[in-house]
Specification:
Order of helices and strands: HEHEEHHHEHEEHEEEEEHEEEHEEEHHH
Bound molecules: flavin-adenine dinucleotide
Helix content: 25-40%
Strand content: 15-25%
Number of helices: 12
CATH class: Alpha Beta
Largest sheet: 9 strands, mixed
CATH architecture: 3-Layer(bba) Sandwich
Length: 424
């Protein structure tokens, strides 16, 4: 039985409540995509736009996973860029330059072409949580200006911060006016409707329980079977096929969000005068923004045990109030969490289990933009243009072949280490 969307601000304000059918019986397609999040849906759209027949299978509801419950921050680039450059040198520099805003382009084009209402607003800011973090922000700002992005990047010294943010905890910031924030569940539901309108056969409540490779690969669900020339695993942390190059590669970790009642216009302007999305510079970071109806949507990690806490509000509200004392008496209306797919070297994992069975996952909490990029890289590879895909396949990933439980304990320890480092 399909799990419903998590009880979030997004589920409460979703525009499109379409239920897609369950797969019954056998189908054949050029491409079968497993997973109805941004990665899967966008692969399906791109392949359908290129004339391929596509079946998409989602275990629960479209947008049930991280895509329908994230912080909604559309951030340039992707995780692990430093490690990517260390491994691939000039090839990585070129790849990052080519791709860093590609997801934004795709999202904008989906919104425009398919009239998707998802509250997209521009402006994203990284704030320095420690005085010493300003060095890194200044260097990164200089790099972005050198790469030609000076017209939409700003560096903000501490004394100028009140113009952008009503919080005194920070030491300065950098702003990217080309990144921003949006309602992710409305985006992914809109994209699913777009896929269906292009002829993609979309199924919910259809978990894939068996995957068979070979010359004629196929997948099986409880009530159906799909045979396809290519299969794409886009199930992120949840899919059951962590084998071959995926074994010991990615580890899910919790990230959590609380969301307040709507703030008065005056208070919202005081806290977020420019309505930017904000993330701090810690590795174990806080991220927050206003929703379209002026709620403070505040996310982060709230423990280091890798187990969900019994009350998110009790553990996260004190942190929210530490940043914004003005919200001490503000009601919390929603709390929810989700799983972030962490790769040890933080570089997203794009590759294949077999010549015609592809995978993409491991965006390390930086997937709104990157899932759209990955979908295009995979679609290009399936259609025979493998230049970017080959670079991702060349990456050497660290693996911990110790199973998920033990890996998660190690990850929890690692997060604690980084939290202590953030505090020092
Ligand atoms: C709380 C939270 C906050 C975040 N905040 C941000 C943010 O602000 N900005 C940002 O860039 N990124 C953020 N992220 C990360 C981002 O949301 C993800 O990287 C991205 O959504 C991953 O998309 P996806 O399509 O690959 O996976 P998902 O969206 O997780 O989709 C995978 C889908 O596959 C389905 N599935 C799994 N197994 C099977 C199977 N066997 N058969 C059929 N279907 C299956 C699942 O049910 C799920 O719906 C956040 C993540 C979380 C959890």
């Amino acid at each position: 039985m399909a799990e419903p969307h998590v009880n979030s601000y997004y589920a409460a304000t979703v525009n499109d409540r379409t239920r897609y059918p369950q797969l019954q019986g056998s189908l054949k397609a050029d491409v079968c995509v497993i997973g109805g999040g941004f990665s899967g849906i966008n692969t399906a759209i791109t392949m359908a736009e290129r004339g391929r027949s596509v079946v998409l299978l989602e275990a629960n509801r479209i947008g049930w996973g991280a895509s329908g419950r994230n912080g909604g921050q559309m951030i340039y680039g992707f995780s692990g860029e430093g490690n990517l450059k260390a491994q691939l040198g000039a090839d990585a520099t070129r790849l990052i330059r080519d791709l860093r805003y590609r997801g934004h382009d795709i999202i904008e084009s989906r919104i425009k072409t398919h009239a998707i209402a998802c509250d997209l607003k521009y402006g994203w800011m990284e704030v320095a949580a420690r005085a010493k973090h300003m060095t890194g922000l200044r260097e990164h700002y200089a790099e972005m200006v050198e790469d030609g992005h000076g017209d939409h990047w700003e560096l903000v010294e501490r004394e100028a911060l009140p113009k952008y943010l009503g919080a005194s905890a920070y030491h300065g910031a950098m702003i990217d006016r080309r990144s921003g924030h949006l309602h992710p569940l409305n985006l992914v539901m809109g994209e699913a409707a777009a896929a269906a309108s292009l002829g993609v056969k979309v199924f919910e409540d259809s978990p894939v329980i068996e995957l068979e490779g070979g010359a004629k690969p196929f997948v099986r669900t409880a009530a159906g079977r799909v045979e396809a020339d290519s299969i794409v695993l886009a199930g992120s942390t949840e899919h059951q096929f962590q084998r071959g190059p995926l074994f010991g590669l990615t580890f899910p970790t919790g990230s959590y969000i609380i969301c307040t009642e709507p703030l008065s216009e005056e208070l919202a302007n005081q806290l977020m005068p420019q309505d930017l999305a904000v993330a701090d510079s810690n590795i174990v970071l806080d991220y927050y923004r206003l929703t379209a109806d002026r709620r403070m949507l505040f996310g982060g990690r709230c423990n280091y045990s890798n187990r969900d806490p019994s009350s998110l509000t009790a553990t996260m509200q004190p942190r929210l109030v530490e940043i914004f004392p003005q919200l001490a008496n503000t009601r919390i209306d929603f709390e929810w969490g989700g799983r972030i797919d962490i790769v040890l070297n933080r570089i997203p994992a794009i590759g294949r289990l077999e010549p015609n069975v592809y995978f993409t996952q491991g965006y390390c909490g930086h997937g709104v933009n990157f899932s759209h990029i990955a979908a295009e890289v995979l679609s290009d590879a399936i259609c025979g243009t493998t230049e970017k895909f080959d670079l991702f396949e060349r990456i050497h990933h660290m693996r911990l072949p110790i199973g998920r439980w033990a890996g998660n304990q190690l990850l929890a320890l690692g997060m604690l280490y980084y939290r202590l480092r953030d505090l020092l």
